[in-house]
Amino acid sequence: MAENTLMEKLVSLAKRRGFVFQSSEIYGGLGSVWDYGPLGVELKKNVKDRWWRAMVHARDDIEGLDAAILMHPRVWEASGHVAGFTDPLVDCKQCKNRFRADDKRIKGTPGQPDAQCPVCGSKGTLTEPRLFNLMFKTFMGPVEEQAAVVYLRPETAQGIYVNYQNVLNSSRQRVPFGIAQIGKAFRNEITPGNFIFRTREFEQMEMQFFVKPGTDMEWFERWREWRMEWHRSIGLTPTKLRWHAHGPGELAHYAKAAYDIEYEFPFGWQEIEGVHNRTDFDLGRHQEYSGKKLEYFDQAANERYLPYIVETSAGADRVTLTLMADAYREETVEGETRVVLGFDPGIAPIKAGVFPLVKKDGMAELADRIYHDLKRQFPVFYDDSGAIGRRYRRMDEAGTPFCITVDGDTQAGQTVTVRARDTMTQERVAIDQLAEYIGSRIRGS
Ligand code: ATP
């Protein structure tokens, strides 16, 4: 399938089936901001739940946190974001459009007479590059003045650093230990795009692991392995995942080592998660800017040190898009195209469709009862409209792994057919075994 076509198909399926809508669509939309519909919110929630389970519930050495989006403005001075979270931009004096200085469509050198605006085509109208900060600013309190400026956080990590001692003092943790957080982040991206891949409002799933200096590279390697394994565990095709090591020119100012987990999207290999060895940069800076000691005292060894931090940072929206792109397929079945989102059952937004074969002989009542019974445990969907084949297709497109049909034999034998999305094969299952049948396949995934 042509690359762009796949993205176009995904965007249209996402809207048609209620995964993702453009924000404020009836007003013409808001640039690179998206809303999640009924199926999308379930899918993204499953991504976040799986991450939380793997990072917090399944481990003894990580605690959860939910810090506020608004933070003291000094945090962003200490973190380096006020001075350094910038992109160089150029303006066209003619058409007033703004571009990243490294925009490949610009011919010539911005600021020089030979530079040509990629939109209006004028020559010599592009300004010299100027630095533009990507943080969204707002004001706290009733007065809009410089002293009241606060920022919408551009990453969740800083909320963890400033709470590191609170968590340490209120939990039973000792270094090495981690703090995990899922939350919104905001970046005034200049070249957003590719649907929900790069947006201006997004959710991050970040974990900061505090370790003794000297053990940091060991932990870094462990975390690399665990994070790659997680992406495989949610069903992503292993051959479409790879590592990208940051070379010396790419490495952020705070990092000693950094690797991205990349996925092969229809628009090329792109980062979905970063694993970084941030050294003691962050705690060192917060110690300096706040004037508060942030050292850790290791009682057993009777020594004091600033822990090093290994960070794992993934985007919930980006992983959601990855799952959709990875799961999308088209097949020809009996001369017709079948569109399938082949999600892992544990990740799928709806676990089962429940249908009466026809609306007579008590089948609808029985199907309704089964539906309500299962609904107490899983997200399930009742559908009694149209031919059974069409109902199957609708569930295939939503990525629902199982379809349960009440038919003429159900009443007598107390069994139903369960049709598997991927193989399209059916088997008869006893009604009282249904919850276990579905539950074991979701848990097993
Ligand atoms: P990129 O180079 O793609 O802008 P980055 O290196 O700035 O990303 P980080 O700051 O390391 O990204 O953020 C960690 C993760 O947060 C990324 O791997 C990605 O999944 C997610 N993320 C970052 N920026 C965005 C965005 N604008 N929209 C959606 N997700 C994002």
- Kindly name the structural category: alpha+beta
Number of strands: 23
Overall residue-averaged pLDDT value:
95
Helix content: 25-40%
How large a portion of the residues is in β-strands, by DSSP E?
25-35%
Enumerate the strands of the largest sheet in spatial order, edge to edge or round the barrel.
3-9-10-16-13-12-11
Instruction: Calculate the terminal CA-CA distance, rounded to whole Å.
Output: 28 Å
Q: What Rg do the Cα atoms give?
A: 26 Å
List the bound ligands. adenosine-5'-triphosphate
What would you note in describing this structure?
The structure is a single chain. The strands form seven sheets. Strands 3-9-10-16-13-12-11 form a seven-stranded mixed β-sheet. It has a five-stranded mixed β-sheet with strand order 20-19-21-22-23, sandwiched between helices. A three-stranded antiparallel β-sheet has the order 5-4-6. The longest helix is centred in the first third of the chain and has 20 residues, at 38-57. Helix 2 (38-57) crosses helix 9. It has helices spanning 3-16, 38-57, 73-78, 81-84, 157-162, 164-170, 216-233, 281-290, 316-327, 363-375, 388-398, 410-413, 434-443, and strands at 20-22, 34-36, 62-65, 86-91, 98-100, 130-133, 136-139, 149-152, 177-186, 201-211, 241-245, 257-265, 268-279, 296-298, 303-305, 308-315, 328-333, 336-341, 352-356, 380-382, 402-406, 415-420, 426-430. With 445 residues, the chain is of the alpha+beta class. It is built from 13 helices and 23 strands. The chain binds adenosine-5'-triphosphate (ATP). Adenosine-5'-triphosphate is lined by residues 155, 187, 189, 198-199, 202, 204, 271-274, 313-315, 317-318.
